[in-house]
Amino acid sequence: MKRNRLLKILLGLAALLLLINVLTTVLAGPWAGKKIISLLNEKSLIWTFELRNAKVYLIPTRITLTGISMKPRMETEGNRYLNGEIGSVKIMGINLWKALFKKEIDIRELSITGSRVSGKLPESKVSKKPLILPVNLRIGRLVVDRLDLAVESESSRQALMIKDAGLKVLDLQGDKLDTVSPAIIKKFEFSANEIITVPPDSLYTNTVGRIDYSSEDGTLTVDRLSIHPNYSDEAFTKRHEFQSDRFDAACMNITLRDFDAPAFLAIRTLACSRIEIKKLDLDVFRDKRKPFNHKVRPVFQDMIRNYKGVLDIDSILLDEGNITYREHAEASNNQGSISFNELHAGIYKITNNPALKSENPVFQLKGEARLMGKGKMTILLKAGLFDPSRTFHLSGSLAAMDADALNPMLENSALIHVNSGRIDAMNFSLSANNTKSSGRMTLLYHGLEIAMINRKTDETTAFKERFMSFFANRKLLDSNPLPKDEVREGPIDFDRDPERFLFHYAFKSILSGMKGSLVKESRNTKNQ
C-alpha cells in the first residue's frame, strides 16, 4: 500500500515537472526571445535584430534561439553596413542559482551554428571604448560552427573573408569589470577552409588555405599561405615614391610545433619549438629607376631584438624552395634576374628573450641551393643575438658551373655579357659587425671572356663596345690560377652602408673579395 502511494507521488511529481517544463517551453520561450532581442536592439545604434523562434527548457536547463537576423537600420541602409544571420544559438546547462542570486553567468555550453555575416564596416569617428564585463562570466564550452564572414572597410579597400570556420573555446572565464580581450581565452581549437585578407593599401591579397589549430598539443597547420600582389611590376612601382620590393610568395604545408596561440593573441608572444615549410616559391622585384629612400636600416640582430613581444623560435626548416630576385637597373632597358633553385635551408635560435641574454644565444642560418639552377651553393651564417657589436660570421662555397649562366643578371644590371668561361669553385669566409666586414675569398675559374653592352641598343658588336670589351678583357685575368702561377686569394674589405639590409651588406662584401681573383693588379678599392 505504501509502495503504491509512493509510486503515485513520484508519478505526480514527474507529471508536474513535465507540465512545468511544457508550460515553460510554450510560454517562457517567446517571452525570453523578445527580451533578448529587445536588449540587443536597445544597445545597438546601427543594426536591428530579429528572431524567428525561441524555446526555454527547464529539464535539462537550456535555451534555443533559431533564425536570428541582423540588418542595418533604415537611416544607414544606403551605406550597406553589415548584414548577417545565425542559424541557431543553444545555451545549455545554465546555473539558475548563480544567475538569480549571485548575478553571475555560468553556462556549461554555448553553441552557435550557421553564421553568415557580410557587408561594410562603418568608419568610426570616435575612439572605441573597451568592452567591460558587467558580471562574472564562465562558459565551460563555446562552440562556433560553420561561420562565413565577408567584410570590407567603408573608408579603404581593406577586406576580410573567412570561409567555413569553426571555433571551440574551453573554460572561458572572466571576472566582473574585466576587459574583454583575447587574454581571457586559454584553450581553443580553430579551423577554416580559407581566410583571405586585403590590407588598406590594397597592394596584396593574402590567402590562407585550410588552417587548423589545437592548443591541446600546440600544433598549427596551414595547407597553403600566399602573398599575391594585386598590381603588375610597373603599376606597383608607380604607387611608390621610392624604391620598394614587390613580393609574390607561396608556401605549402606549413606546420608550427608547440605553438602557444593564446599567448600570441594576448601579449604577442611568438614562441614555438619548430616551424616546418614543405615548399616555398618567392619572386621579388625592385625597380631601381625610382629614387632610393635614404634612411638608416637596423641590422638583423636589432630587428629580432626589437620585436614587440617575446620572440622565441628554436628552428625554421625549409624542405624545398625557389627564390628569384629581379631588378630593373637605372642604366638598363630590361630587367635582370638571379635565382636560387632547389633550396634547402634551416634557421636556428631566433629569440629576444631577455632571460637568455647572459647566454648570448647564437643565431644560425644554414642553406644550400643551385645558383641559377646550375652550381651548388652553400652558406652558413652565425651571430650572437645579444652581441653589442652586432658581429656575424658568414662562410660559403660555390661548385663548378658555366659563367654565362650569370648573364641574366650581369647583362641588365652591370651591362656585361659573359662570352665564355667556367667557374671551377668559390670559397669565402668573413666576419662583419655594424660598420665593417673583413675576410678572404678564393675564386677558381678558367677561360673567362666578357663583352660590354651598349646601354641604348643592348648590342655588344659596335666599335665603342668592342673597344671597351678589349680593354676590359686586358684588365680581367682569364683564369685563376694562371699557368705556372699560384692561386690568387682576394681580401674581403667593405664598409657597411647603414641604409641597406643584410643581403646587400653580404653581397657587396663577397664582391669586394672577388676582385683579387679577377682583376689584374687589383687594389681592391673599398665599396666599388
Provide tags for this entry.
528 residues, alpha+beta, 21 strands, 20% helix, elongated, disordered C terminus
Describe it for me?
The structure is a single chain. By secondary structure, the chain is of the alpha+beta class. The protein has two domains: 20-123 and 131-195, no CATH class; 295-528, no CATH class. The protein is 20% helix and 48% strand. It contains eight helices and 21 strands. It has helices at 2-43, 96-102, 233-238, 261-267, 300-305, 407-413, 463-475, 502-518, and strands at residues 47-58, 61-72, 83-94, 104-121, 136-153, 159-174, 187-198, 204-214, 219-229, 246-257, 270-272, 274-287, 311-328, 336-351, 362-371, 375-384, 392-398, 401-402, 416-432, 436-452, 489-495. It has a 21-stranded mixed sheet that branches. Strand 13 (311-328) and strand 14 form a beta hairpin. The longest helix has 42 residues, at 2-43.
Write the layout of secondary structure elements.
Blueprint: H1 2-43, E1 47-58, E2 61-72, E3 83-94, H2 96-102, E4 104-121, E5 136-153, E6 159-174, E7 187-198, E8 204-214, E9 219-229, H3 233-238, E10 246-257, H4 261-267, E11 270-272, E12 274-287, H5 300-305, E13 311-328, E14 336-351, E15 362-371, E16 375-384, E17 392-398, E18 401-402, H6 407-413, E19 416-432, E20 436-452, H7 463-475, E21 489-495, H8 502-518
Parallel strand pairs: 4-5, 11-13, 12-13
Antiparallel strand pairs: 1-2, 2-3, 3-4, 5-6, 6-7, 7-8, 8-9, 9-10, 10-12, 13-14, 14-15, 15-16, 16-17, 17-19, 18-19, 19-20, 20-21
